[in-house]
Write a structure and sequence with these properties.
The strands form 2 sheets. An 8-stranded mixed beta sheet has the order 5-4-3-2-1-6-8-7, sandwiched between helices. It has a 6-stranded mixed beta sheet with strand order 11-10-9-12-14-13, sandwiched between helices. Helices cover 38% and strands 20% of the residues. The protein binds adenosine-5'-diphosphate.
Length: 398
């Protein structure tokens, strides 16, 4: 069974074609600058890449090109489009309507549209992917996989904000949190590695990339998570601020009189880049910190402290933790962040094995000492595979 996974942004489209019997990636690629000058497609099969530069007016044209490449005799991986059993779409916001992936129907499209005010940049782009696919291949099963779905198990005490309840009832103002496919994937995989059922474990998953979130996964279910109604709270991120006081937002808006400008500051000019002034990329910040740049050191300390605080508070929420899992660009690759985050958590039974942690990049491993009460693990995330698995299950009618 072959499944295509699409992740559509407003001017980009990422794709991966899976053979689900082996879960192997047959081909993948990225279309960039859709609707803009200089559009191009980078398609990769067997580690060999092909680049096609041409005008790509919209997502429908982008999908036509992707399907042509997938059917190509040399660089493709399909003989006929009939081989495609389903297409899985990454959808950022499913609001309170979806706690798992679903087959796309007209009603589902309407629900995704109704969540546009909650994710104005992402949901319209995700919908463009669905429309482009249904225009191009009307017969294929489309599956929507939501970033918010995994967190729908959070109890009200985790998702209600301390503001008048009517804003939840009337305006859907609440914590939703994101990166759900990643937290679901790594927590399930961690349970497999530990050889225990997920239902018996308390796991804290740390998805640390350009965007970051931490989730408390109790018995396989998300019970708290650090992103919110939007994508700025929680951990200090590449360009996003992490937890701040509402007064800061009000002060900035009052002083600068412009909510759009303040939104731009909090989403794009804050976090590692805002504090360090060096870069939003942790590697650059760590490099500058090593050379004595105090603000770079401060930014990286703030990132690690915000992760540590969330881990300890989520352990408190769950009444303990069996495992802490690091994933995504920073979590999978930065031994220094993993070391700094876990240092000081010995009081709750965390004991890192520095030898196992040092130099470990992008590989699955348990990096805690054998006698550590809480296992510390690195599990590379694979959101696309998680979407493909859901699409397969739904295509099989399960
Ligand atoms: P996104 O949220 O855009 O998917 P990623 O998960 O790819 O982001 O993570 C990007 C982050 O991972 C960047 O801050 C980058 O510096 C960091 N990163 C990648 N490799 C390393 C490394 N070897 N050491 C430290 N940080 C790394």
């Amino acid at each position: 069974m072959k499944i295509l996974v699409l992740n559509c942004g407003s001017s980009s489209l990422k794709y991966q074609l899976f053979e689900m019997d082996t879960e192997a990636v047959l081909a993948k690629g990225l279309v960039e600058r859709i609707g803009l000058a200089g559009a191009c497609v980078k398609h990769t099969k067997d580690n060999k890449s092909t680049v096609r530069e041409e005008e790509i007016a919209d997502h429908t044209k982008a999908i036509k090109i992707v399907l042509e490449l997938l059917l190509d005799r040399e660089v493709g991986a399909l003989k006929s489009l009939d081989e495609l059993s389903a297409v899985g779409h990454r959808i950022v916001h499913g609001g309170e309507n979806y706690s798992k992936s679903v087959k796309v129907t007209d009603a589902v499209i309407k629900e995704i549209e109704s969540c546009v005010p909650l994710a104005p940049l992402h949901n319209p782009a995700n919908l463009m992917g669905i429309h482009a696919m249904t225009n191009t291949l009307p017969g294929v099963t489309n599956v929507a996989a939501f970033d918010t779905a995994f967190h729908q198990t959070m109890p009200p005490k985790a998702y209600i904000y301390g503001i008048p309840y009517e804003y939840y009832e009337n305006d859907k103002v609440r914590r939703y949190s994101f990166h759900g496919m990643s937290h679901a994937f790594v927590s399930a995989r961690a349970a497999e590695i530990l050889g225990k059922p997920a239902s018996s474990l308390k796991i804290i998953t740390c998805h640390l990339g350009n965007g970051s979130s931490i989730t408390a996964v109790d018995g396989g279910k998300s019970v708290d998570s650090s992103l919110g109604m939007g994508t700025t709270p929680g951990i200090l991120m590449g360009t996003r601020c992490g937890d701040i006081d509402a007064s800061v937002v009000l002060h900035l808006v009052t002083k600068h009189g412009d909510a759009a400008k303040v939104s731009d500051i909090l989403h794009k000019k804050s976090g590692l880049i805002g504090v360090s002034g060096v870069s939003s990329d942790l590697r650059d910040v760590e490099e500058a910190a090593k050379k004595g740049n105090e603000r770079a050191k401060l930014a990286s300390d703030m990132l690690c402290t915000s992760v540590k605080k969330h881990i300890a508070s989520y352990a408190a929420v769950m009444g303990g933790a069996d495992a802490i899992v690091f994933t995504a660009g920073i979590g999978e690759n930065s031994d220094s962040v993993r070391a700094a985050v876990t240092k000081g958590l010995e009081f709750m039974g965390v004991k890192l094995d520095e030898g196992k942690n040092a130099g470990l990049r992008g590989k699955e491993a348990v990096i805690s000492a054998d006698d550590s009460k809480v296992k510390v693990m690195v599990v590379p995330t694979n959101e696309e595979l998680m979407i493909a698995r859901d699409a397969k299950r739904i295509a099989e009618g399960k």
